[in-house]
Amino acid sequence: MGRRLHPVAALDHAHVWHPFTQMRDWLRSDPIVLIGGQGTVLEDAHKRRYLDANSSIWTNLHGHRHPRLDAAITRQLGKVAHTSALGLAGEPSARLAAELVASAAPITPDPDPSATRLTKVFYSDDGSTAVETALKLAYEFTRRTRGPKPKPRFLSMDGAYHGDTVGAVSVGHIDLFHKAYGGLLFKADKVAAPYCYRCPFNRAQPERADARTYRRCQWECVGGVEETFERAHRSGKPFSAFVYEPRIQGAAGMIAQPDGWLARVATIARAHGTLLVADEVMTGFARTGGPSLFAGHSEGVVPDLMALAKGLTGGYLPLAATLASQPIFDAFLGEYSEFKTFFHGHSYTGNALGCAVARESLALLKPANARRRRERLARLLSTELATLWSLPAVGDIRQVGLVAGIELVQDFRHRTPFPLAARVGIRVCEAMARRGVLTRPIGNVLVLMPPYCTQPTELRTMVSVMREAIEEVTGPRASVQV
Predict the structure, then answer these.
(1) CA count, 13 A, side-chain hemisphere, 85
(2) How many alpha carbons fall within 13 Å on the CB side of residue 459?
(3) What is the pLDDT of residues 147-168, one digit of tens each?
(4) For strand 41-44 and strand 241-244, is the pairing parallel, antiparallel, or unpaired?
(5) Residue 344 above 80 pLDDT?
(6) Given this model, what pLDDT does residue 2 score?
């Protein structure tokens, strides 16, 4: 007879439907019930402690129960928790909007007055709604500037995931997640992602388990993007917007883009009059390193629309924002009787508590010493991850700043993936949880995305536990013969 479930777990089994979870498996499990946390550590109902190695699904930046973030919420509670944004202004949302616009400005000011600037902020609830807002703005902006015909078209990347609302799913290209809803969606075109490890042009050549070499890349994938734009132009149906995650695609499997890819593709899109829609829901707020808080800035790319969420509040409250350029905003201006208003919104738009804690999170991110600490942590992460190359099941290690994906394979030489039905990634993460480290895989890709407060000893523990778990699930350590 199995151990009796904790009362909270029993209630969960009775009533809660979990996201992206096969509930038949879940109902057979004895789930971890988290009741507390401090810094990088979470505690369950049985007083067991765990390191939060994926920042509570990519949201938590500064650690749990950070005193300054807690205080920011408490201060705002002493004023008001929420007020409507319909016909009313609020102090936290107005001040946060100004700070987001300032943070989104290019690092090196461009003397060209026509260069893109993000000047307006539209608030919503989560990453999906931030992307949905951007798609609606791009769609209507195109109709108002190009005319209603041809119908606005969207382009995104193979393997894209931009959220779960209908528009966001429409520009997604992960069949496992999206195919079931095909009848609800509008058509969006796609271009190949620069998945270097599985390069269709065979540029990536593994030589041994602890090193990779890439033949000299000829940017064939960029050529494919250019041909897609040219083909759309010749058909008389150009793209309204190109939707992308800058520097690294998250749910696709932490697919890191080679340096220079984004800048090249953005130039092509701009040359064809296509809006750039940057999904920085995962990549924003210093996750990918560099001098800016936003990933696209590292390649000098400022989009026309930018979706933000996840780390916006430091992982405390659901809040999202869509930043827009002035020309897009201006296209919705007119007399009341023209009904050019942006007819879209949410009850909790600009929530005061969320905006207050987001402002404090931004204040924690910006000091030079905070950036230096993140850089040191990223370097240590790179050093520790390198120790995994000797494992036969480790096919690729991809890291951009403090985002890392470790792809597991059956055969290193041929890059043969494990079948998804084997649940290898899930089983490794279950083995990690038994050792006190929590993360969640993307298929066969293990994710490490530690909070910025992570101590060096904690980071080393995360990687060493991952190593032990990989060995447990995929077999004992052995040399890779290539």
Answers:
(1) 18
(2) 22
(3) 877 789 999 999 999 999 999 9
(4) unpaired
(5) yes
(6) 55
CA distances (Å), origin 376, targets 1, 26, 40: 49, 38, 17
DSSP class per residue in 66-135: -HHHHHHHHHHHTT-S----SS---HHHHHHHHHHHHHTS-SS--S-TTS--EEEEEEESSHHHHHHHHH
pLDDT at 210: 46
- What residues pair up with 37 in beta bridges, in sequence order? 42
Q: Which CATH architecture has domain 75-365?
A: 3-Layer(aba) Sandwich (3.40)
Q: List the domain boundaries for the chain.
A: 32-65+368-474, 75-365
Measured distance CA(313)–CA(69) in Å, rounded = 9
Maximal CA-CA distance, the chain:
73
| Contact status, residue 5 vs residue 12, Cβ threshold 8 Å | no
Please name which of 171, 170, 277, 271 lies closest in space to residue 225, comparing C-alpha atoms: 271
- Alpha-carbon distance of 66 to 55, in angstroms, equals 14
Q: Report the top-level CATH class of 32-65+368-474.
A: alpha beta
Are the C-beta atoms of 260 and 227 separated by less than 8 Å? no
User: How far is it, in rounded angstroms, from Cα 421 to Cα 404?
Assistant: 23
Higher pLDDT residue, 106 or 274? Answer: 274
CA-nearest of 122, 126, 134 to 19 is: 126
Q: Give the single-character DSSP code of 439.
A: -
Calpha distance 250→256 (Å, rounded): 9
CA dihedral 60, 66, 70, 72 (to 10 degrees): -90
For 386, counting Cβ atoms within 10 Å of its Cβ (0-12 exposed, 13-18 middle, 19+ buried), the class is: middle
The tokens for 91 are 């102090």
The alpha carbons of the chain give a radius of gyration, in whole angstroms, of 23
pLDDT band at 477 (very low <50, low <70, confident <90, very high): very low
Please name the amino acid found at residue 126: D
SS3 category, 14 = helix
The SS3 assignment for 355 reads helix
- Cβ neighbors of 284 (< 8 A, separation 6 or more) are 293, 294, 295, 306, 308, 310, 311, 312
pTM: 0.94
Please name which of 3, 5, 67 lies closest in space to residue 38, comparing C-alpha atoms: 67
With 90 as the cut, is the pLDDT of residue 441 above it? yes
Contact 49/43 with Cβ under 8 angstroms? yes
